[in-house]
Amino acid sequence: MKTIITPTDVYNLAFSVEENYNVSVVKESDIAIAESRYLLPIVGETIYSKLVNGGYYDLRVEYVAPMLSAWVRYMIEPLLAERCGLGHDTTTVDSRVLAHLKMMAMEQTRRMSNYLDKHHDEYPEYNPIDNPLNHCSIDGNIVQIY
Fold first, then answer.
1. Among the ranges 4-18, 70-84, 121-135, which has the highest mean pLDDT value?
2. How far is it, in rounded angstroms, from Cα 88 to Cα 80?
3. Residue 36: Cβ within 10 Å count
4. Most buried by CB count within 10 Å: which residue of 44, 64, 103, 126?
5. 78 Cβ neighbours under 8 A, 6+ residues apart
6. Left if phi > 0, otherwise alpha if psi is -120 to 50, otherwise beta: which for 105?
7. Alpha carbon 93 to chain centroid, angstroms
């Protein structure tokens, strides 16, 4: 399975040194799910393929990697105890932590989307009209349709 970023990239971007986890808590399958769920609908198949194959370096490093890392961290947070061998207790995950991680991921997604919208002439395969974030967003449980 080929992904845009590696588990090491996610680990370095989404975890702090103080957290003392091992990079093995991040799986390539987590990244693949985040890519298909959160990135692909925004960038489309063509740009996604170029990113996977090493293209668009600046976009990948400055915008896509932080966004994907934030979503992967959000997705795996409830699984960290189990992946670290501490049992399967998801009740210890603080809902405030999850809410914060989700907010961070959403902000990174919006940051990437705004960059693509402003620089769409540099990415001829990108069409802002196809970006679902340009049609609808949910802020504070309020659906906004543009």
1. 4-18
2. 9
3. 11
4. 64
5. 90, 93, 98
6. alpha
7. 20
